Amino acid sequence: MSNSLFRTKKVENILAEGGDDSHGGSGLKRVLTVRDLTFFGIAAILGAGSFSSLGYAVFHGGPGVVSLFIITGIACAFTALCYSEFASRIPVAGSAYTYAYASFGELFAWVIGWALIMEYSIGNIYVAYSWSDYFTSLMGKMHVHIPEYLCTSYMEAKHAVEGGSTNADELAAWNNAPVIGGLRMILDLPALVINFLITYLVYRGIKESRNFSNVMVILKIAVVALIIIVGGYLVFSHGLTPNWTPPNDEGVKSFMPNGFSGVMMAVASVFFAYIGFDAVSVLAEESKNPQRDLPRGMILSLVICTIIYILLTLVLTGAVNYRAFDGVGDPLAFIFEPQNLNVGWMQFLVAVVAVVAMTSVLLVFQMGQPRIWMSMSRDGLLPPVFQKIHPKFKTPSFATIITGLVVGVPILFTDKTFVLDFTSIATLFAFVLVCGGVLLIPRKEKLGGRFHLPYINAKIIFPLIVAGAIAFAMYLSKGYFGHMTDFSFERKTEALQKIIPAKNIDTVTVAASIEQHLVSTNDTDSAFIKLTKAVRESSTAAEKVKLAAGFISDNDPTQSRTAKISLIIFWLAMVLLALFTVIKNYSLIPLMGVSTCLYLLTGMTLSNWLWFGAWLLIGLVVYFLYGYKKSKLAG
């Protein structure tokens, strides 16, 4: 049984089943050009990341988050080249799922297919919520008021009340909602409506989706360019460039005021801005010349969007101090508000375009998911109905409807925080396997008109890169690896954490316990020394407790331990990859793709890993109950 779990599909069989015929009678319509594919890529990348999660990234990383966009862009570039190599060999729908089937085998293919549901469907729930926020805001600017209980998710309102939130809209949604049978009628109606409309558009056909997407992308790029030009001009004309080197907590001006660790805290939100460029590969069977145009579409859209994100980040952090972006969900409109750059017409224009931008993201993701399910169904891992093609519209009709339900139903009982934990980690995991898959497939002869990934023997280069990276890390931070394996700081922080929640003890007693704990630790760590001094100099017990609570919040022991364990695994993986490269003569580009994506995974939190693990466990149960037995490779 163990061997059969890793049974692979031959490329020629995948091509035969995928309808590679340009005008296959019952297949998908081949109508997309390189321009269309590039626009679809931009539509997916330049959306919720720039108009929503960019504010979160800037708040944590400051102006230095630009470096994270560069790192992420490089990681995605290596990955895009690996996707392109697969796309030139296997020009069918299915994306990373199909590529994994040809290289790693069925079990890994299923895991990737299951993980991509998190990227496309679950990710689209977050985008739908963000779309609703901007749409509601736009309606408000046009003096059209939508009741709060009809544009807020139930869980967000519930959590706001339970957590003592001061968010007026969420509290109003809870307090003003009609009650039926003891249940408050709170739902995000705009999110549900846009999901229905996008599902209908994708159901109708690829041409309609293409034309709609291209118009939105042109409008979006034009306005984003205007934001960069107007915002950039005002940053220089108002003398706001010192915002690029804001003071940190010690008063030292720095491009990375929270250090590189603060920058890495923004990994999930920055990478969320990039998820979707791989959605272009899902459209292989609808491309006129996939073996030439898919690679071009992915790489062009990636380069364009990376440049745009870097410029947007510089404009945001120049216009307003990075600390002001705490909790800001509409950062591009925020910088033009009266208290900032004070350009009213730009604020309104951004609100309009944000709705357009996230509509295009919804469209691309909603197109991607049905085509992955269609590929999985062809292999017998899902019921045959998922590969049903509509006789008139030539779209995977049933899979499209199910995608609409998978996105729409959870809107009724989830919230943005819950959904965001699902997305980036699954995509990075898929990217690692795609790059790793290129290492396992045999090199091919170069053919005219097709993309060909250059082979660069990394036998010497990659081990030197790993050795150089280790030396550089030790140079930048003395005791880097010793600190990584030392968990005493986390244990001492946890001990302090246990003192704070004592609700039945008065503040004076808690403060005394904090001081006693800090003295007894006799710690040489600079952070604890600084805290001890601040607590001793505080005049009130309440202030002492507040300082300790803030220290714990900034140094969450659980997340710190997760980061250290992730880094330990990363460096061990790098050493092993270097050793295998010496033996196997691996190619440099896919190795760099694996390495950079693995490094980005070290920035994921414990909750990211827990949700991802739970989702994969459910997927494995489904696979062994149905897919393993029904697979076309079974028996």
Global Rg: 25 Å
**Helicity range:** 55-70%
The main sheet orders its strands as: 1-2
Report how far the terminal alpha carbons are from each other.
11 Å
The total strand number stands at 2
Low-confidence stretches: 20-26
Instruction: Give the assembly state of these chains.
Output: single chain
CATH superfamily of the domain at 4-145 and 190-329 and 358-456 and 606-630: Amino acid/polyamine transporter I
Query: What integer is the average pLDDT?
Result: 81
Fill in the CATH topology of the domain at 4-145 and 190-329 and 358-456 and 606-630.
Amino acid/polyamine transporter I
The sequence of SSEs as H and E is: HHHHHHHHEEHHHHHHHHHHHHHHHHHH
CATH architecture of the domain at 4-145 and 190-329 and 358-456 and 606-630: Up-down Bundle
Strand content: under 5%
Structural class assignment: mainly alpha
CATH C-level class of the domain at 4-145 and 190-329 and 358-456 and 606-630 is Mainly Alpha
Shape: globular
Number of helices: 26
Protein architecture, described:
This protein has helices at residues 11-17, 34-45, 48-61, 65-89, 95-103, 106-141, 154-162, 168-176, 189-204, 206-237, 259-264, 267-272, 290-319, 331-334, 344-378, 397-408, 416-440, 461-476, 480-484, 488-499, 507-521, 526-537, 541-554, 557-584, 588-601, 606-630, and strands at residues 179-180, 183-184. Among the domains are: 4-145 and 190-329 and 358-456 and 606-630, Amino acid/polyamine transporter I (Up-down Bundle), CATH 1.20.1740.10; 152-187, no CATH class. Helix 2 (34-45) crosses helix 10 and helix 4 packs across helix 17. The chain contains 26 helices and 2 strands. The model is unreliable at 20-26 (pLDDT under 50). The longest helix has 36 residues, at 106-141. It is mainly alpha-helical and 635 residues long. It is globular, with a radius of gyration of 25 Å. The protein starts with 10 loop residues before the first helix and ends in a 5-residue tail after the last helix. A hairpin with a 2-residue loop joins strand 1 and strand 2 (183-184).
